[in-house]
Amino acid sequence: KRFGYRTTRSVKKEREALALLKDLFIPFGGNVDLKNPDVSILLFEGLGDGDEKILTRKVADGPKVSIINPNTRHCVTNTPLCPTTSYIMCNLGRIKSHSTILDPYAGSCSLLLASSLIESETTTVGIEIANENGINRTSIMTDFYSRDLTPPKSLLCGDFRNETIRDMARESIGNVPFDVILTDPPYGIREKQEWTLSSSNYPWSLCHTNPLLDIVKIVAMDLERGKPLICLNGGGRLVVFVPCTSQQNIYDLLPAREQLSDAMLSLEVMVEQRLNDSLSRWLVVFESK
What we know:
By secondary structure, this protein is α/β, with parallel strands linked by helices. Helix content is 25%, strand content 20%. It is built from 8 helices and 9 strands. The protein has a 7-stranded mixed β-sheet with strand order 5-4-3-6-7-9-8, sandwiched between helices. Strands 1-2 form a two-stranded antiparallel sheet. Strand 3, helix 4 and strand 4 (123-128) form a beta-alpha-beta unit. Helix 7 packs across helix 8 (257-263).
């Protein structure tokens, strides 16, 4: 069980755990400085179906993601991405110094905040269809400045599926492809609006119920028109969440092999997060060829 801000730890369970670990601790010998220990030893329990316990040694700390918690931010939205999840997505995107990052469904920019938190010398761009009545971009910039984080190079108000908006995003980083596309697309009311785009070489339309398919098809179209959205030759990554109900098969929600080939992408990682008995969301990673 995890104990934190809203629930206090169980002293009884701590004492029981210490008693069970007596034989392990005795060989250490000597006094213990709890305020300034040489080694921090952590006990994890409840990780399996039974009473499994794992004893670990703490070797490093990551960024304090709590500083970008939604309840500490100036820009308030209904469904912000939690900071730990944002941090994980950035790691899967292999964010590093001088990476260029695009979030085509930026919202309150949780992913861009996490990118800047991990590596200050990144260049980020966000696209969000909601206007100032829905997303306050001034508040978003305040969220970066108040934490001494590098702000986005550009926050564009528009539809990612619009060619002009994507060109503006590329222009903001010098008309070059992005290293990483990170996004948690909306799968609710907004994207159910009818919106189609066809091409003589791409007879399919953009899907208004599956943003992931839109993204992959757009990557393919931008490649064809000579303005690649993501770096090629294994240098680019697309990291995205895909919701899946218990009645659906996740593979039916992913791009077909031909669509990935057109976009010069390959599927690299799929991880499921069960939200409840009827709904999961999959963290999916694609890499450019």
